[in-house]
Amino acid sequence: MIYVFRGLARCCDAPCRFCGEACKVLARGCEHVSVCFQPIVDAPLGRYVIGTWFVMFFVALCGGLGFISAECDDSTIACAVFIVLAAIHASFAYYLQRRIVVGMTKRGQQTVNQQELAREAGRIMLYDIGVCLYSILYVCAWCWCFYSFAMLGCGGGAGFAAAILLILYGMAASTYLLAWYCCTCCAGTAGEVWVLGEGRPAAVPRWQQQLPLHQPRAIVGSPILVRPK
Asked: Global pTM?
């Protein structure tokens, strides 16, 4: 009789073992994906880039569904434009982040404070030709999304969702970038730094960033940093 119960126990345990192995495979897959996205998430504007990609994925998906179900040329064109705009927004988010990081590393700086980061971001927004062209397209595309509702009147129902997402993204992205720049400028007085390549900010006293350190002294065997007079 005991063998019967053992057999039943193994049969019941099999799904659990299968789920456990599946979870391990999924965890390893998520870990590899995390490694791929880690440099983007840890770099300046990481949340902006990931958020843009997330929203633009659904914009492109809705645009594609609307393109398939469109019943007239106007709806087909509108849904195709939604897909193109999604690709442009997603590409620019990554472009802006890389321009900031590359601009700092070209100066030979691996660790920068928030004030330097804000200065570099401001320089790029003022003088970079890609940012200039995208700014014009950004405003025109946002206004066109309102007009696209009239083009979608003959079909392409999912296109309405794409238009609404683009309108909301236009307001949210501009607000976020403005708030990020203002906060970065204000944080420059707090001595917070970014380690390029690792990305995450680390709080370091401003006097340690700007002034050379004397030879560390030892008190009870523990080294300390001495602020120069």
From this structure: 0.69
